[in-house]
Write a structure and sequence with these properties.
The protein has 208 residues and is of the alpha+beta class. It is built from 3 helices and 12 strands, in the order ααββββββββββββα. 22% of the residues lie in helices and 32% in strands. The longest helix is centred in the N-terminal third of the chain and has 35 residues. The N terminus is likely disordered.
């Protein structure tokens, strides 16, 4: 009996075991609570993480502009085209010298209607130029300008007038000035970025 009593744990050892077990449980509980509160705090600081993406985004308030490029396709400035001089180096019969002809001359009788080649705004009207008679200048998109010489502007045409492609803006005048020897005709010039360009770049009436 005495040997059996010696093998029994003392009260101090039992108490120590319970203290160690309690300490372990407290550590486990503290770790568990830390993990739980950490996850909750993270979810609160990122409230948009669980927001689902929209399947159908809202319609664009500014849809692409409608393609209106056809409005800027040139038409010939007179109905029946008879080309007398192209945009090239040639001989001026009136002045009797060779020069760079910066434009295109269309043979047409006095009074023939002259049309706006493309939509634009009238920027200048000159009616008493000694060299070219009357002159009309029209500005267009893409920094393009058309110039009509040897014409009689229509009475309702004013600086600032909006013109559409095909609108009558003048009639062909009686031959005068530096091209009087050529007879009645319309002289058309085209500029882009203030530089003279071949009108046929846009009209495309000369076979290449």
């Amino acid at each position: 009996m005495k040997n059996k009593e010696k093998t029994k744990p003392t009260k101090k050892k039992v108490l120590m075991y319970y203290l160690i077990l309690a300490a372990c449980l407290l550590v486990i509980a503290a770790v568990t609570l830390g993990v739980v509160f950490g996850v909750r705090a993270n979810s609160m600081s990122n409230p948009t993480l669980d927001v689902p993406k929209e399947e159908n985004p809202p319609a664009d308030d500014n849809p692409p502009a409608e393609d209106t490029s056809s409005k800027y396709e040139f038409i010939t400035p007179i109905k029946d085209v008879v080309l007398r001089h192209a945009h090239n180096f040639d001989y001026n019969e009136t002045m009797d010298y060779y020069r760079m002809h910066r434009g295109m001359d269309f043979t047409a009788s006095e009074g023939t209607e002259v049309f706006a080649c493309v939509d634009g705004t009238v920027t200048e009207i000159i009616t008493n130029n000694d060299l070219y008679g009357a002159i009309i200048k029209v500005s267009h998109a893409n920094d393009i300008e058309t110039v009509y010489k040897f014409v009689v502007p229509t009475s309702n045409l004013k600086v600032g007038s909006k013109v559409n492609r095909g609108d009558t803006i003048a009639t062909v005048a009686k031959a005068t000035g530096v091209e009087i020897a050529e007879g009645d005709h319309l002289h058309l010039e085209v500029y882009q970025n203030n530089k003279s360009v071949d009108p046929d770049t846009f009209l495309k009436i000369i076979a290449k």
